[in-house]
Amino acid sequence: xxxxxxxxxxxxxxxxxxxxxxxxxxxxxxxxxxxxxxxxxxxxxxxxxxxxxxxxxxxxxxxxxxxxxxxxxxxxxxxxxxxxxxxxxxxxxxxxxxxxxxxxxxxxxxxxxxxxxxxxxxxxxxxxxxxxxxxxxxxxxxxxxxxxxxxxxxxxxxxxxxxxxxxxxxxxxxxxxxxxxxxxxxxxxxxxxxxxxxxxxxxxxxxxxxxxxxxxxxxxxxxxxxxxxxxxxxxxxxxxxxxxxxxxxxxxxxxxxxxxxxxxxxxxxxxxxxxxxxxxxxxxxxxxxxxxxxxxxxxxxxxxxxxxxxxxxxxxxxxxxxxxxxxxxxxxxxxxxxxxxxxxxxxxxxxxxxxxxxxxxxxx
Length: 364
Ligand SMILES: [Zn+2]
Fold this sequence. Notes:
The chain is α/β, with parallel strands linked by helices. It folds into 2 domains: 9-153 and 306-357, Metallo-beta-lactamase, Chain A (4-Layer Sandwich); 159-301, Rossmann fold (3-Layer(aba) Sandwich), CATH 3.40.50. The chain contains 8 helices and 20 strands. The protein has helices spanning 56-66, 159-175, 189-196, 211-219, 291-295, 309-319, 331-340, 351-357, and strands at 9-11, 14-17, 22-24, 35-37, 51-54, 71-74, 81-85, 88-96, 104-110, 113-117, 142-146, 179-183, 203-206, 228-230, 236-237, 257-261, 277-282, 299-301, 323-327, 345-347. Helix 1 runs antiparallel to helix 4. The two termini are 36 Å apart. Bound molecules: zinc ion. Zinc ion binds at residues 40, 42, 99, 120. The site of zinc ion (ZN) has 4 residues, from loops.
């Protein structure tokens, strides 16, 4: 039976094992004598570390996003690999997290016990990434889990229904001679929208920020269907960078196309180049009725790459850890929910966040 005490430090929102010189999703660039596991390539999980452990798709996405050089230790899913830390050996196993392409949960095993770190995850299968599978981590000692949507009102409808609703929005907008614009993050959501709507018969034009990442998805075997690149003037051009399709005489730029753009497009001056548009955001926060108005869009669809409330509970039930630590989103509320269900659970709050929350300046 491992000790009840927390076996790691929680520093600036990252899990840190000082004795092993190991970090999980460190936000600050770490030194060359430390290993950092990068669970996935979303911008809030990456930094210019010197030595990283990650999956092959995450390595490709990281190179595209950060450039530069670093020592990479690429692990396959399920491949248990031994490492030596300054005060002990440890083994790491990356497990598919189902969040975006290449996203990984991390199983850490060392002399003191075993810990599963989920990173961002989702149990619902997606055609755009590997299905979540944490079988190898069952009955671990500690579970550190993200709880972004850790309240009961965040139970998402079936993806098939959300896709049908998005499709209807696109058709209605086109029938009104306007351009449908689907807003989602450039990594993960943009590719998932393409994947889900690939057989719809619609034509897509994708913002430049999402294009190199979409190509990596395709190189890794994800089928995104046909799409064009969007140029600055608002005209679709082939991804290879050809001369581009021009609108029909007297027509609207991008007529007949569905645009896939980052959320910042809603406030972008570039928007005026596209003629009449109707905007829709794809996010789990669309479960809130105010989402549409807060985002300044015409429609909001609850398409998320995170686990919903039921999936968060399902994960804990299936992993059966001795103790759970929650982080991100509704961490305190979800830890309380787990305690009500007789799990041993505690929310992780970075010391500096707590200090600021109390209105006290840190002493160092
Ligand atoms: Zn993420």
